[in-house]
Amino acid sequence: MRADIEFRRPDFTLRAEFEVAPGEVLAVLGPNGAGKSTLLSVLAGQLAPHRGRVELDGTAWLDTERGINVATHRRGVGLLAQNALLFPNLTALENVAFGPRAAGVRKAEARETAGRWLSEVDVAELAARRPGQLSGGQAQRVALARALAANPQLLLLDEPLAALDVDAAPAMRGLLHQVLRRQEKPTVLVTHDVLDAVVLADRLLVMLDGCVVEQGLTREVLARPKEAFTARVAGLNLVPGVAAADGVSFGDSTISGRIAEELEQGEAAAAVFAPSAVAVHRERPHGSPRNAIPVRLAALEPRGDVVRVRGVVRDCSLAADVTPAAVADLRLTPDDEVWFVVKAAEVAIHPTSGGSSGA
User: Which SUPFAM superfamilies does the entry mention (predicted)?
Assistant: First the structure.
């Protein structure tokens, strides 16, 4: 999909140009009011921009110069929003079968398709329940099945985890990771959570005040943020590698941690931990089980009561927040070789799609 659009309101202008390849997930990240949901509405055909073009597989959905604006129901768009928005009077199976039925598929075939997708999202046993009998996480899984059962040409995910509680969100994120990596169609994911981008997205687009300020591979954008907002949201350390028996294999070492989402050995994964969980040592410490990562110091950044110590290992940028006294005691300066140390209990292991990197 290719998009080049400009949408104007009296108090706001959205300008965005980007591409999403077949099977690729593009995450759109930005603060409230950045224009993320407006962008999705234009892609879905719910808003008409003042200027622009949206094209998928060589077919123009929108071309203001030629007067083309294909209606929403003819674009073949699948949408998963914050809230499941299921039809309350229909069962889960009937909700999922609605899309194929609306496209003219026979009832028996539509129900078969719906059953297959309910199994795909692990809620086949809930087929006969109505939305009022489902938990938030269960309803969102049914909504995902409904979006996919219609065989969309473009999948739009609008903050799909925002309304879920802390217990349901990781499971849903893991499910999305498994489903999206098997998709052959492009996907655009709007989120405010950098972890969603790390786990689900191949590429990242950052928006501020209606403008695209950064875009590229997720790992590269987060590793070398150009804008203060991007640097702020990329405040987690993200060490990319592959899943191993007890953590993430990174180069010739393994970073241990707790498994936050289900993954298989050998698949792309990342170890995620906060800069505040990192201690800095001149020598490799011994004793209780800890992860010790050798880094070369790149910068020291005062941040109020702490100093953010930035280090590089291989192509990965990492950060540690330490006190000014610790910086003075260790006599830290750029280009020093030191150890970043973090307890395994502070590290979460997540699957990844597009790669990830540090704060």
Answer: MOP-like (SSF50331), P-loop containing nucleoside triphosphate hydrolases (SSF52540)
> How many alpha carbons fall within 13 Å on the CB side of residue 326?
16
| Token duo for residue 39 | 């962008």
**Residue listed under structure tokens 């994964």:** 269
pLDDT at 261: 76
Query: Which ranges in the chain belong to alpha helices (H)?
Result: 36-44, 92-102, 107-120, 136-149, 168-180, 194-200, 218-223, 228-233, 324-330
Q: Which residues contact 106 (CB under 8 A, 6 or more apart)?
A: none
* Residues 20 and 1 sit within 8 Å (Cβ to Cβ): yes
Rounded average pLDDT over 234-246 = 84
Report d(CA 39, CA 71) in Å as an integer.
Answer: 16
**Domain boundaries defined on the chain:** 2-233, 237-351
- In sign, the C-alpha dihedral spanning 255, 260, 264, 270 is negative
What is the model's pTM?
0.77
Owner of token pair 């970073």: 255
Half-sphere exposure of 168 (CA within 13 A, CB side): 14
Query: Which CATH code of 2.60.40.10, 2.40.50.100, 3.40.640.10, 3.40.50.720 fits the domain covering 237-351?
Result: 2.40.50.100
**DSSP codes joined into one string, 184-215:** -S-EEEEES-HHHHHHH-SEEEEEETTEEEEE
Q: Confirm if 78 and 52 have CB atoms less than 8 A apart.
A: no
Contact predicate 358/317, CB 8 Å: yes
Helix/strand/coil for 132: helix
Over residues 296-321, the pLDDT tens digits come to: 999 999 988 999 999 999 878 899 99
Question: How many residues are there in the chain?
Answer: 359
- Cα(359)–Cα(351) distance, rounded to whole angstroms? 18
Q: Is the pLDDT at 355 greater than 70, yes or no?
A: no
Q: Which amino acid is at 98?
A: F
Q: Which fold has domain 2-233?
A: Rossmann fold (3.40.50)
pLDDT of residue 25: 97
Alpha-helix residue ranges (DSSP H) falling in 54-130: 92-102, 107-120
What pLDDT, on a 0 to 100 scale, did the predictor assign at position 7? Answer: 96
